[in-house]
Amino acid sequence: MITVENLRKTYGDFPAVVGSDFSVESGEVFGIVGPNGAGKTTTLKMLAGLVEPTGGSASVLGYDPEEPAMRRKLGFLPEESPLYEDMTARSYLRFFADLYDVPRDVADERTGAVLDRLDLEYRDRRLGDMSKGMKRKVAIARSLVNDPDLLIYDEPASGLDPLTTNVVLEFVRELRDEDKTVVFSAHNLFHVESICDRVVIMNRGEIIARGTVPEIRAEHGETTYRVFTTVPLAETLPADDGADGEERHVAVVDEMAAVESLRERAEAAGGRVADIRTDEASLEDIFLRLAREAPTTSEAEGGRGGGTGGTTAVDESEQRVVGGNEHS
Ligand SMILES: Nc1ncnc2c1ncn2[C@@H]1O[C@H](COP(=O)(O)OP(=O)(O)OP(=O)(O)O)[C@@H](O)[C@H]1O
């Protein structure tokens, strides 16, 4: 559905995306995750044909993303959805239906079903009078007006309250059940961890880890073991007594060989290992460690200094949605 090879974007001499390679299979929910300024939006805009890459290639739905035909088959949700404040949700969605040549009755039914699932009432309210969460729901409905197979969502749940976040993420998960493919970005790792089939983690323009969440955890996460013994050993600390009132001591180790060593020494001291608990690193832990450790090509080249922040100038091409028209 999507193949990306050595995709790059440089703004002036600033490398926003440095040689990305990944593919997205049909029917997947694929997450691009990273902190502010990591290059997520730039990547998504290149896939949506809204930003021209500086190098490399991307194939989306079998098209070069620059081809207008591709955009007609895509649903793109920008990070900040520009909405016409004076329009009602209903008239706004019909306006987009017209642009995509979708008959109004079909569009009304399609977007109405989306808004029902997203729990949005007040469809005749002015967009300017809607809350941020309500506007986001209208923008999501807009992304589906043309019934696309592929959805590219930039931070769909950013800035929403926890309840609305859950509604939106649950909706994204359900899109997969309808054989849609979803690529979305997030800086909140919890969002990706809960709904993505596969993930790439970006930092400072580069992909620093990839795979399913369990794969990333297996490759980059440190599993630690809390080993409870019934006798004190050199590296144990006192712990609460066991349920049976038996004395307990605990040591935290990060490899099975150390667990075995504790077992042997506990037994040699007349005790035993009473319990072992495994603590798996969260995606958040892994991300923080990788981000700390990752040397960046761009840094080596002196292009991207430290820090992950930066201001994001809105590219004019974001306004293009269908064909070469300027709107939205
Ligand atoms: N049009 C532009 N002109 C110059 N620099 C840009 C432009 N767009 C993005 N950048 C820079 O490129 C880097 C990557 O930006 P991008 O918006 O892709 O990151 P992001 O991961 O989506 O961040 P955020 O989570 O804050 O949206 C940032 O340092 C940003 O300032």
From TrEMBL:
Ranges where the ABC transporter domain occurs: 2-229
Protein name: ABC transporter ATP-binding protein
Record bears the keyword Zinc: no
Keyword Phosphoprotein: no
Family matches, as PROSITE patterns: ABC_TRANSPORTER_1, ABC_TRANSPORTER_2
PANTHER family in alphabetical order: ABC TRANSPORTER, ATP-BINDING PROTEIN (PTHR43335)
Entry superkingdom: Archaea
InterPro entries assigned to the protein according to its UniProt record, in alphabetical order: AAA+_ATPase (IPR003593), ABC_transporter-like_ATP-bd (IPR003439), ABC_transporter-like_CS (IPR017871), P-loop_NTPase (IPR027417)
Keywords: ATP-binding, Nucleotide-binding, Transport
